[in-house]
Amino acid sequence: MRIFDPHIHMTSRTTDDYEALYAAGVRALVEPAFWLGQPRTNVGSFLDYFDALLGWERFRAAQFGIRHHATIALNPKEANDARCREVLDEIPRYLLKDGVVAVGEVGYDSMTPEEDEVFSRQLQMARDVDLPVLVHTPHRDKLSGTRRTLDVVRESGVPSEHVLVDHLNETNVALVLDAGAWAGFSIYPDTKMDEDRMVAILQEHGTDRMIVNSAADWGRSDPLKTLKTGRAMLAAGFTDDDVDKVLWRNPVEFYGQSGNLVLDPVPGFVEGDLPSPGVEFEGSSVLRGVRA
């Protein structure tokens, strides 16, 4: 089983997770810029974070044979904090960097006027550089939040096929598919979705434009939920080809619209041949320290 995890926050995970992901069949992933759990207090903390996503984290993933990509944005939760808004002036230059495959996560948290403004502005950024968009739906009042999200996307002029609406459930998946966008599902141990509910949704709606992720982060989450969903699909009668479509071909097709995916094997990586102790990241190559 080959897996592309299209939404996972590896900055919050350990190298053990990278080893487990590779063993599970994960060969590529996307790490969206997100809220760190504690509010940022100035634009510099965002820039350090973006630099780490595009440098250090790519290097760290490559050491374990995994291709790392990122999405860049001011996330919805921090869109309400005036101290963070300056970063909107900095984001466009990051959208041109290697490894950036979308603008995101954008969208709504509490559906405030500030979130409206930041969402619309970042959709325009995506149009300016012709990148896909990863959209976060609110955890509360999800159905009306999804309707509002889709309205704003339509008004922006961003093509629906360039939009992945994430954190969906049974209440709003049909809305997103009917709008022509991609439907994303975060599979969690306790909240959002689990693998059995995901299988039921796939049985009802099919596998077209359906994307499954672990969204693993600093909270209680499981980076192997993609693998577990694939196994649940097989147990429910889906074919190996169905699983490959949901866990690999669909996310590759969506993020491939950026033109920035790198999916070939990491040069020099040998499974089980782990990085040498003391190897340091010097920034000149994301592959520095990988054994040849």
Automatic annotation (TrEMBL):
<dbReference type="GO" id="GO:0046872">
    <property type="term" value="F:metal ion binding"/>
</dbReference>
<keyword id="KW-0479">Metal-binding</keyword>
<dbReference type="Pfam" id="PF01026">
    <property type="entry name" value="TatD_DNase"/>
</dbReference>
<dbReference type="GO" id="GO:0016788">
    <property type="term" value="F:hydrolase activity, acting on ester bonds"/>
</dbReference>
<protein>
    <submittedName>
        <fullName>Hydrolase TatD</fullName>
    </submittedName>
</protein>
<keyword id="KW-0378">Hydrolase</keyword>
<dbReference type="InterPro" id="IPR001130">
    <property type="entry name" value="TatD-like"/>
</dbReference>
<dbReference type="InterPro" id="IPR032466">
    <property type="entry name" value="Metal_Hydrolase"/>
</dbReference>
<dbReference type="InterPro" id="IPR012022">
    <property type="entry name" value="UCP005295"/>
</dbReference>
<comment type="similarity">
    <text>Belongs to the metallo-dependent hydrolases superfamily.</text>
</comment>
